[in-house]
Amino acid sequence: MAQANPRIALVTGASSGIGKATAQALATTGYRVYGTSRRADGGTVNGITMLPCDVTDDASVSKLFEDVLAKAGRIDLLVNNAGFGVVGGAEESSVDQARAMFDVNIFGVMRMTNAVLPAMRRQKSGRIVNIGSLLGLIPAPYNAIYSASKHAVEGYTESLDHELRAFGIRATVVEPAYTNTAFEENKVKPDQALDIYDQIRAATEQFMHAAVRKGDAPEIVAQTVLEAAKAAKPKRRYPVTRWHGRHACCAVSFPKMPLTRA
Questions:
Q1: Using CA atoms, how far apart are residues 141 and 47, in angstroms rounded to an integer?
Q2: Which position among 34, 146, 156, 238 bears the catalytic label?
Q3: Which of 46, 69, 129, 260 measures 20 to 30 Å from 155, CA to CA?
């Protein structure tokens, strides 16, 4: 039976993977859910209304919130999930490529958060759950740009949470490890690849592909998002990994750079 006054949730990057699983889990537990993707058509399937939004575009973000508030009147939960990665040596990504990643992975989070806060302050309540990464807590080689963007999400969210508590709003980070989604397949290539990294880059990609295939189901991450969304006293961060009882860094290991001689 549908709730008379369901809580309203907004999930970015909800067309696949963690975002889709999260949107479905929220809908199943009684939320009225709006999901976003750049090519959404506004249709509703399985209780999830998909709306178009490009988190790198201020006008697109503003229109999204105007549309959701016009339809629902409030927003109780924002899940910032949209993001992408790149695998390669740190020097193989140009500043332009790094800027493009930060524009989605951290500035997109900031745009969405800035847009939702006025409504949440008026309500005197709200929850923001940012999808970080274990690599935002424990950096890994050949993921420097991605790790840097997720470290930024960590710092931003923790500071934000302290600022918002006085308004009845909380912010927290969910940190997936390897997750069995198409994220790894959709990663971009370094835009200034160097021959010296070809061997280790290929080995790292092979390693990560295997780890992702054996990784957590996106539904496991979605359940952690639900926990973070509903907790009366949310934790600063919620690591997601099947390696219970072991330090999270045990789940992250990468091939070593082969030694070369002059």
A1: 40
A2: 146
A3: 69
CA dihedral 170, 153, 18, 10 (to 10 degrees): 40
DSSP 262: -
What pLDDT is stored for residue 226 in this prediction? 97
At a CB cut-off of 8 Å and minimum separation 6, what does 125 contact? 76, 168, 169
Work out the number of other CB atoms within 10 angstroms of the CB of residue 33: 28
Whether residue 141 contacts residue 173, with contact meaning beta carbons closer than 8 Å, is answered with no
Q: Which residues partner with 50 through β-bridges? A: 35
What's the pLDDT at 246?
A: 40
Contact at 8 Å (CB) between 223 and 183?
no
Domain 8-241 in this protein, CATH class:
alpha beta
174, β-bridge pairs = 131, 238
Strands 77-80 and 169-176: unpaired
Kindly list the domain boundaries of the chain, sorted by start residue.
8-241
CA distance 19 to 41: 17
- With a cut of 70, which residues of the chain have pLDDT below it? 1-4, 182-186, 242-262
Q: Are 14 and 20 in contact (CB under 8 A)?
A: yes
Exposure string (b/e) for 176-191, b if CB count within 10 Å is 16 or more? bbbbbbebbeebeebe
List all residues 6 or more positions away from 29 whose beta carbon is below 8 Å from its beta carbon.
226
63/75 Cα distance (integer angstroms):
14
Asked about 146 being catalytic, the answer comes back as yes
